[in-house]
Amino acid sequence: MRRPGSRAELAPATRRFPGRKLDRPPKLGYEQGTVAVRKPKMEAQKSATRPPIAVLAATRAASKADLDRLLEEAARIREQAYAPYSRFKVGSAVLSKTGKIYTGCNVENSSYGLSLCAERSAIAAAVAAGDGGIVAAAVVTGAVRPAPPCGMCLQTLMEFGGTSAQIALMTLRGERKQFTLGQLMPHAFDRSFL
Question: So where are the chain's domains?
Fold first, then answer.
């Protein structure tokens, strides 16, 4: 009888992955936000010179006029939200480092965990358009006071915006609040921990 982890059991793995002792593929490396498997040295040096997305986003600041426009777009797209279960419609707009605005609304699902928040929807639209760095975001809800993004959305905003990104919140009655992402999420998990 073979013991788990014995040489006889590991032998086929070393044939599949020469030089490896376990039956698993090579580790994936994270370089500047992309997943890569052991890049050649020259290409790895090229990607190491590119600044992370959050650094690129910080190169353009959002003005008051930018934030006003983001809030208008977020309020407009909020009407498109699909929220038959919570009836809590949310609209969001993000301003990219290139000055473009991308919008998103919440899309609920009867299997609640599959629901998509408005903020992540807007960021997904920016990424799909090839515009990843976020300078500012706006969130409009029908709540009684300005509602901040949930934890999952804050983490996603942090990935693409960094601590200096401006976050504008507004109710349908026009009550507004403004924060930096660092204020809303002061101890975020980021790539520096990886």
Answer: 7-50, 56-193
- Tell which residue, 171, 106, 117, has the closest CA to residue 140: 171
Per residue of the chain (194 residues), give pLDDT as tens.
555 554 554 444 444 545 545 455 545 444 444 444 444 444 444 444 444 444 444 456 899 999 999 999 999 999 999 999 999 999 999 999 999 999 999 999 999 999 999 999 999 999 999 998 999 999 999 999 999 999 999 999 999 999 999 999 999 999 999 999 999 999 999 888 99
Cα distances from 55 to residues 44, 144, 158, 176, in angstroms, run 19, 35, 11, 27
Q: Could you confirm whether 159 is annotated as catalytic?
A: no
DSSP secondary-structure letter at 116?
A: B
In the CATH scheme, what is the code of domain 56-193?
Answer: 3.40.140.10
Q: What gap in Å lies between CA 94 and CA 101, rounded to an integer?
A: 6
| Active-site annotation holder among 9, 31, 79, 119 | 119
Closest CA to 126 of 115, 116, 137: 137
